[in-house]
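U., I forgot to send this yesterday:
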Amino acid sequence: MLTALGIRNVVLIDKLDLTFEEGLCVLTGETGAGKSILLDALGLALGERADTGLLRHDGGDAVVTATFEVAPDHPAAVLAAEHGIGAEDSLILRRTLNAAGRTRAFINDQSVSVGFLRKVGGFLIEIQGQFAQQGLLDHANHLPLLDAYGRLGDQAARLGTAFRAWRDAGAALSEARSETEQARQDEEYLRHALAELDQFGPEPDEDAALSVERQRLMQAGHLVDALDVARRDVAGRNPVSESLRSARRRLERVAEAAQGLFDPLITALDRALDGAESALDALNSASQAIEIDDARLNTVEERLFALRDLARKHRVDTTALPEFRQQMRDKLARIDDQSDALAALEAKVADCRRAYVSHAEALSKARAKAAKALDAAVGIELPPLKLENAVFVTRIERLGEDHWTSSGIDRVRFAASTNPGTPAGPIDRVASGGELSRFMLAIKVVLTATDAPPSLVFDEIDSGVGGATAYAVGERLRRLAGRLQVLVVTHSPQVAARGVVHLRVHKSDSGGQVVTGIDRLTASEQQEEVARMLSGAAVTKEARAAARRLIEGAPQ
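Result:
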């Protein structure tokens, strides 16, 4: 509920801080005192259109702050949390307006867009103006309001699930048909491409393997030449092995005279001789292993270049050719199996449609029953509001299949007639301003138990009525206030007398400037204000007595 409202520099308001409580709060005051300014300021905090006409002359930027008490699971708190705004137990909506017409919006001191501020505010409070197009007059709201009144939320949710399943099945069928048609158009190409790929037979990582082999074959001649040179160096005109043998023989001849000094040298020469012979054997083996195969090189190059040409032709990498080949097979298989697949999808669509229609028919019947109950309940509220000849009708129209939605197969419209024998039509077209306000009150009284924000504001809902009718308006406002917070701007003493909290708006002179102020009235002050509203400027004893009876609950 709304717990506080702070206003700075708005028209006649310099600085104003108000607190609010549960129940019915009434705002009264002389015409022109500034009651409408108060509502305009509240609308600014809720994200409504900003007008520089709201700025106080030479007062700086206008700032309006509205504080709401909310539970953690309240839709406004949940929405704020989804945008990273912690709520705890309150939401503080603040809006500023400067002389250039630019505004800034904040929720709990975090900057937000005006649109988001308006969305959050819509969950917190609803302002019912006498001539404003409100939620009840928006046809788009009538169906969900009826579902809420009839407590059909679970049925509506199941219908929504069935609709989404039907829609998804239809989308899958459409996609399959499109793919099949496209595949049929491409069938000749697919069969030719697959035949070419099958004939070529690309292997995984074949490009890399062929590249390695090609490089080796291209280098074979250079390798053989290098081996030949190395072999000549080892076993040429002066072979290394012969030189080693000659050196060994020379040392052996004098080895005895050396008395063992040459023994390690002879052993080292033996090892060197073995190594030289082994190296020569390795060179010979390597030379024999490397073959210069020009035919194989041509074969490898032809295969490699053909592989790359094939990949370019199909606009894929060479490594993706095997997978691309399988995709061609799969597409052709789908063409071959298209009849069975499409038949299965068509059967699923038909099943989902039947399920949706079954849920929709059941919900439509439930709505018809709820509509009769709603019409009867609103009808009971109309006579005391001086609308005894009025009729409220909830019309349910069956839609064509092209217009079926997740909400069902029905179009719901609230209609009314204010004169006997006159066909019912849209409420905002058949009711006058005062009648429309009372219609809204009657509907709100009935619907509030199932669908309402925690706070409601009514602006001069009692316009054009008095006496017992005004008293009935006050009683219904107080009844509403038993379930939620209600604020009402009124000129009717019968309505003002019903207020649990009474605020009086007044103008005064401050430093040569006219400012608007608000006083919270005590019980005796409330009685005096109601008496003033009954008698005018001169408050009589009779007016005070009548005011006391009104406050005590006796209709005038």
